[in-house]
Write a structure and sequence with these properties.
The chain has 382 residues and is mainly α. It is 82% helix and 0% strand. The protein has 17 helices and no strands. Helix 1 runs antiparallel to helix 7, helix 11 crosses helix 16 and helix 15 packs antiparallel against helix 16. It is globular.
Length: 382
């Protein structure tokens, strides 16, 4: 069991590392390819939307063909596509390949979560999944921080090469150690896939849950591709400083994952939701203030800690929607999160074109606080 979780964690770390590598280098890519910051942020949107669109297909395939088998297949594809990104001759080709890699990456972390949830009892699931978050979140935190440092020192192509190497190593370990077998009693076929969709979506909590997931992720992730630009406009900082600030978001998630059992015991589900929403809202309000750039690191640690309190609760609720279709349930969860990560920057970018930065960040803060306050009532949780 420990080795099984460790290998899944290695895949989650490598995949998570690649998720946020573009955020700190948006200004660098904008300058090199002579496109606007808003247009360059579409790289984030392309990856996130493609990641989301893959979920309705990859989740059922993981249930039917075996989650470990799909993780290895998707990891292999992502490894190759990252190499192609590193060699991209122009912005259009980079955007297309980055989008395709997002589709393939969608078959790694969600299926790893589903595989782990299948192997633990319901009583221990939230703690187990909270701890598992360490791997993915730490990967995202390090990906953002390392991207800024490596890109300034060696150029943006180097970060894609480094990420490909990590993905190759994790996929090789998974191939050698995980049982690459079909899921038990999970026949493939269109009827069984549609049946699993009905099983998940028939729950009365499904629609409110997925709506809250989307709104919370829009609030938390919508501004991230613009952090480098906001800091640069305020202080003249570059990718290095933006990477450190964005890395704080992931570090906050890691701190939550390491303390998840104590947080659950101290607050309980209802107060966890409210604390997560209000804490995240407060962090966004603090970022709206023109304080010294380094002060934003603890603000983003608070944002990450608070958001992943909500994320962990919503993720656990998703695994409970349909125990016989965990792969699909978690894939729909990921669909919502990454759809929000794709559409969030579009809304924020449009808002920033007509509104001042503090007003946009304050709106996101109110949205996140509202999600946290409303979640216990809409999900009927005690």
């Amino acid at each position: 069991m420990n080795r099984f979780a460790a290998v899944l964690g290695a895949c989650a770390f490598a995949s998570g590392f690649g998720i946020r590598i573009v955020d700190p280098i948006v200004p660098l890519l904008s300058a090199e390819f002579a496109v606007s910051l808003g247009a360059t942020s579409l790289l984030v949107t392309a990856f996130s939307v493609a990641y989301a669109l893959g979920q309705p297909f990859l989740g059922p395939l993981g249930d039917a063909l075996g989650k470990a088998r799909m993780i290895v297949l998707c990891g292999s594809i992502v490894s190759v596509l990252l190499l192609v990104c590193a060699a991209a001759p122009g912005f259009p080709s980079l955007a297309v390949v980055r989008g395709i890699s997002g589709f393939a990456a969608g078959g790694i972390v969600p299926l790893a979560i589903a595989a782990l949830s299948d192997s633990v009892s319901a009583a221990e699931r939230q703690v187990a999944l909270g701890r598992f978050l360490v791997a993915s979140i730490l990967g995202q935190a390090m990906g953002a921080a390392v991207s800024g440092i490596v890109s300034e020192a060696f150029g943006w192509r180097a970060i894609f090469l480094l990420t490909s190497g990590l993905m190759i190593a994790a996929t090789a370990v998974a191939f050698c150690t995980l049982p690459l077998v079909r899921g038990p009693n999970q026949p493939s076929g269109h009827g069984s896939i549609f049946g699993r969709y009905r099983q998940v979506l028939s729950s009365r909590r499904a629609i409110p849950l997925f709506a809250l997931i989307i709104l919370g992720a829009v609030a938390a992730f919508g501004s991230l591709p613009f952090v480098a630009g906001i800091l640069g406009a305020r202080f003249g900082t570059g990718a290095y400083e933006a990477g450190l600030v964005l890395g704080g978001f992931g570090l906050g998630g890691v701190l939550y994952a390491l303390t998840v059992r104590r947080i659950i015991a101290l607050l309980g589900p209802t107060r966890m939701s409210r604390a997560g929403g209000i804490g995240g809202g407060a962090a966004l309000l603090l970022f709206a203030l023109p304080l010294p750039w380094a002060w934003n690191i603890p603000f983003f640690i608070l944002l990450g800690f608070s958001y992943f309190m909500l994320h962990n609760k919503f993720q656990t609720r998703a695994t409970e929607l349909a125990p016989g279709a965990s792969g699909l349930a978690i894939s729909l969860f990921a669909f919502c999160v990454f759809s929000a990560q794709g559409i969030g920057p579009l809304f924020v970018g449009s808002a920033l074109a007509v509104l001042p930065v503090p007003a946009v960040l304050a709106s996101l803060a109110l949205l996140m606080a509202g999600v946290g306050v409303l979640a216990p009532r809409l999900l009927a949780s005690g």
